[in-house]
Amino acid sequence: MRRRNFLVAAGAAVLAGCNQFAESGLGAKLLSAAERWHRGAHRFLRDREALAPEFAPGEISPFFRGNGTTDPQSPAYRAHAAQGFAEWRLAVGGLVETPMALSLDNIRRLPQRTQITRHDCVEGWSAIGQWTGPQLSLLLEAAGLRPEAKYILFLCADELNGDRYYESIDLIDAFHPQTIVAHSLNGEPLPIRNGAPLRMRIERQLGYKHAKYLTAIMAVASLDDIGGGEGGYWEDRGYQWYAGI
Amino acid sequence: MKRHALTTRLWHWISAVLVVILFMSGLTISNAHPWLYWGEAGFLPQEAWLAVPRFPDWMTIPGYYSLAVARDWHNLAVWPFALMLLFIWVAMLANRHFKRDIATTAEEWHPRNIRRDIAAHLRLDFDHGAGKYNFFQKLAYGLVFGVFLPMMIFTGIAISPGMGPSFGWLIDLLGGRQSARSLHFIFAFALFGFFIVHVVMVMLAGPARQVSDMITGGKGKDGEADAP
To answer: Cβ atoms within 10 A of the Cβ of A188, count?
Structure first.
């Protein structure tokens, strides 16, 4: 047998076995359990507040790539963009004592955190940028989480392939000091390709968790009845909810 | 005494399957962004030191392009792979397999010995006494156990954003996240190169005996050719 034929045959055998395994109940369970083991290991190794690496101003990428939606086309978004987002409101609601609607001005007047961090895309690339905005914990404490709240949901103004983008994190990441609602990149208002006027920064996870074009932050008890039920746009398409790997 | 300890045989076959799964799912992950960079960051093809060719579907897990499914496989298989690597190191040190069979002596690094070893390889003479690996075998296994396999784990940790808070020093040591990603790729292909040479050597040295010895342990009498 020619070596290439042998490799093709061996590859096909491994593939067939893998497909069968993935489609079996146990296989599917194991594949999703591995995600929880990684999350457990990451959180076991360091305390929940441990910071992602931060960088010096000289290390900032000259251009910060946009990915996914880079120019939302809905008439409502375009109207906001034309007005410089003066009428944009960020809702904070769901399982909270005091729902709020914040303007960009409100958000800029809160205590701010500025951090230079590395953005890692699930595809493999990285870019370094400086982000500024209030910590999410500040907004959640102001709104007052109800005890049933287990996850924080981020709703977005953009659609990808006809579905609205959304994301979610647990309360550990929600109250992490580097989890901020960013309105600035490298000292300038967020460009549209990077999520204007507001985006999340979840620094210990991959880029798809960092929801852009943010319209609402909702506290929820379960992710089951939202979107496809997996906790995010990409999660509904098979990606891992815990994106720290 | 058996030539291959039970721990060695278990590790060999289980890890072989895991490495194949990790490699094939890794090729899918490479296809998602087939450019490699040095340093901490990088995303433009013109910044890349290497544009990796696209790997065809027959080489990848799954057998079609799905980054999500490939990552599931990669993230699952790495657990037993990493734990088995720890296990075999403990076993090799405890049963003295490493000291006896893999660690080289100063004498073996002498050019005269290396020349003799090259000549034996060229004659396809694999008869070098019971329980003894020649210099190049020791070197290859030493590199695989001591460098290639552990580096897959260390560079993989450095790529994971969730590990950043705990392993900032490791990312710095490897020269940044994108350097770690490049090294992950380089060591994966170093292992692939080892795999090809290893299989060719088994073929040349008598595949039926070699494979059955790695399953049963073999008898390990004097004068028999040893396993590659």
So the answer is: 9
| Alpha-carbon span A23 to A231, nearest angstrom | 22
| Cross-chain residue pair A14–B61, CB shorter than 8 Å | yes
Nearest CA in chain B to A43: B162
Spell out which residues of chain A touch residue B33, defining contact as CB-CB under 8 Å: 121, 123-125
Model confidence band, residue A168 (pLDDT cutoffs 50, 70, 90): very high
pLDDT at B174: 97
Residues A231 and A223: beta-carbon distance below 8 Å: yes
The SS3 assignment for B189 reads helix
Of A144, A142, A139, the closest CA to residue A154 belongs to A139
Which among A6, A70, A10, A36 has a CA at the least distance from the CA of A242?
Answer: A36
Are A239 and B71 inside 8 Å of each other by CB? yes
Residue A193, pLDDT score: 96
Rounded Cα distance between A167 and A69, Å, is 14
**pLDDT band at B223, cuts 50/70/90?**
very low
Give residue A181's region: left, alpha or beta (phi > 0; psi -120 to 50).
beta
Q: How far is residue B18's CA from residue B80's CA, in Å, rounded to a whole number?
A: 8
For the cut 90, the answer to whether the pLDDT of residue A66 exceeds it is: yes
Cβ atoms within 10 Å of A116's Cβ, excluding its own: 17
Closest CA to A155 of A216, A110, A111: A216
Task: Please give the pLDDT value at position B105.
Answer: 86
Q: Do A206 and B161 touch (CB under 8 A)?
A: yes
Q: Which single residue is written with the structure tokens 């798809």? A: A208
**Range from B10-14, B95-99, B196-200 carrying the lowest mean pLDDT:** B95-99
Answer yes or no: do A126 and B41 touch at CB < 8 A.
yes
| Beta carbons of A52 and B59 less than 8 Å apart | no
**Angle at which helices B6-32 and B177-205 cross, to 10°:** 130
Q: Does B47 touch chain A (CB under 8 A)?
A: no
Query: Where does the pLDDT of residue B129 fall: very low under 50, low under 70, confident under 90, or very high at 90 and above?
Result: low
Where does residue B187 fall: left (phi above 0), alpha (psi -120 to 50 degrees), or beta otherwise?
alpha
pTM of the model: 0.91
Distance from C-alpha of B7 to C-alpha of B94, rounded to nearest angstrom: 11
Minimal CA–CA distance to A206: which of A26, A2, A68? A68
B32 touches chain A (CB under 8 A): yes
Tokens of A232: 């995010």
